[in-house]
From TrEMBL:
It comes from Pseudoalteromonas byunsanensis. SMART domains: Y1_Tnp. One of its GO terms (biological process) is DNA transposition. Residues 212-236 are annotated as: Disordered. It comes from the Bacteria. Residues 9-124 form the Transposase IS200-like domain. This is Transposase. GO terms for molecular function: DNA binding; transposase activity.
Length: 236
């Protein structure tokens, strides 16, 4: 079955995941993380992409970012990926690929999922058993969003700005969101939508995306005569 085109729409946040090939290590020394973040900031500015949240794990990366153009995310990830592979191969005297095929991405329904996805990203080191609390992990936007350490590549989303009247208030209210555990069903929903590159949102949001993108935003229903369920009928 032909692969559906990637969903790329301007001004809608995307959750992006890029993994090391065969889950190999992509960050070894602290300098590797620093170089990646510096170039992420550089290319985000070049391609007019606003980065709201991130975490750099040892063998993969999560980003929450909003492009201002339809191809901004793709250009950012392509340029960043090429640069970092050249750097990594030179630094560690290796050759060949580093990243696993295409990066994964999903459009995020801001009203219902933005802050959840931001927490999901910053909680990755906790779920991986690397730390007990996200504040203990250096290479994450939690340091900016919750702790108050300025990270220049971060652009604060309007929903984050609405959390409080000033920086300290917003940071405190954002930290308070982490008092509640993200339900496992929601974690699975985020993982599935990103891995399958479907849309993460409610039915209304998915229909809006379908109308703008001209393609399905979610998989066809299982069972029955799938061929009789057309995208055109689904939009009626």
């Amino acid at each position: 079955m032909a692969r559906l085109p990637r969903l790329n729409l301007p001004n809608i946040p995307q959750h992006i995941v890029q993994r090391g090939n065969n889950r190999q290590i992509t960050f070894v020394e602290p300098d590797d993380y620093v170089i990646y973040l510096e170039k992420l900031k550089y290319y985000a500015k070049e391609y007019n992409v606003k980065v709201h949240a991130f975490v750099l794990m040892t063998n993969h990366v999560h980003l929450l970012a909003t492009p201002t153009t339809s191809n901004g995310i793709s250009k950012l990830m392509q340029s960043l990926g090429r640069y970092y592979v050249r750097y990594f191969n030179q630094a560690y005297k290796r050759t060949g690929t580093l990243w696993e095929g295409r990066f994964k991405s999903t459009l995020v329904d801001s009203d219902n999922y933005f802050l959840v996805v931001s927490r999901y990203i910053e909680l990755n080191p906790v779920r991986a058993g690397m730390v007990k609390h996200p504040a203990e992990y250096t290479w994450s936007s939690y340091q900016h969003n919750a702790v108050g350490k300025t990270i220049g590549l971060i652009t604060e989303h309007s929903l984050y700005m609405q959390l409080g009247k000033d920086k300290l208030d917003r940071q405190a209210r954002y930290r308070a969101l982490f008092d509640d555990e993200i339900p496992s069903i929601t974690v699975d929903e985020i993982k599935t939508a990103t891995d399958k590159m479907w849309v993460l949102g409610n039915d209304k949001f998915k229909k809006q995306v379908e109308a703008m993108a001209g393609r399905r935003a979610s998989p066809l229903p299982k069972g029955g005569d799938r061929k009789s369920v057309s995208f055109i009928n689904a939009r009626k």
